[in-house]
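Residues determine shape. We examine one folded chain.
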Amino acid sequence: MNELAKFDHYLSDEGPAALVVREHLMPVEGTDGVLFPATFAAGDNFPGGYNIDGDPAGTNVCLIDSVGSQANRIEPIFAKDKYKALIPQIVVRAGEKQVNILEAGHRAGDAIVRCSALQRELQDAFKAVLKGNAEPMAKIAPTSLVFGVWDSRDTQAKLPRLIASTIRAFDVRKLTRSAQFIPAAEFVNDKLLDEPVDKAMKDTYAQRGFIHVPASGSHGGVIPTGGIRRDATLGLAALRLLTAGSDEKKTLTLRRYILGLALTAFTYNPSGYLRQGCLLVLDPSKEREFVEVQYTGERKPGTVTHEAALKFAMEAAKAFGVGVSKTVDFDRERAMKDVKGEGDTKTKRKRDKRADATPDTGENK
């Protein structure tokens, strides 16, 4: 079979609605081990800390790694030697730092790329998206078509996530932990330092490690009595909405290219290390599920391997013609104009509620 046509059934209107992976995980210590979920800042009536829905001591669901965080872990693979030829490598120099667009929180819509020499090219690509042509965006920032993007500060163009992955734990028991810092010497009692005269001075001593500091009742992780599960989807129905205008041949070439990138990312095995105290591995007692979900709800076994996906992606990228890699400088003057709502962007000083919201698109953070 022609390698380029190998996965064309995924691009057919009669093809599956999505690919779905469901993996059962566990802490490296075992199924009854303690793991540390992500913590979130307080806001919108949320007190801050772990995101646990339901009864904290009973039936509940705890978010271990969000869809945005999972995207942040997977997308950067396209900067690795094995995968970097699949996409243009777009890098912005900002002072002494070099930022690949794969690392930018809002991808093609991020301020660091918007306020560079790429500003007009990206703006034109977003405008083309609004007119039904995703080809220009695929030439400069193809992973924005895979993981989603929202040009919320300018054209308002939106592209949905094709890949969504989330890790949750069920029926968790929330723990707390306490600690006590003991300084190497009794700096105050031994007259090595003056007695603190007020709270501000005492706080400074504590921050600098000169006095005893207790830490009680802080986050101590959770025990997932109901298990841990990673659910990931690749929305083929959404991918089939991508077009290169009215040109059917170009549209097929574009869809094959984005499908290759999406399959490569979807079948990639991300690291089990999420954060300190959260190292997860597959639970060997439970089967991994990989299925093609039809519009009828019928589920058929998925058979795509990472090796097959990468081979197809290489051929599809060659046929599409990967965009040119570029390194450009962050432009301070453009940034100042952007802040003021001047220049080539449509940024407004007054942002409405819609601009403050985070839709289900490509916002990483």
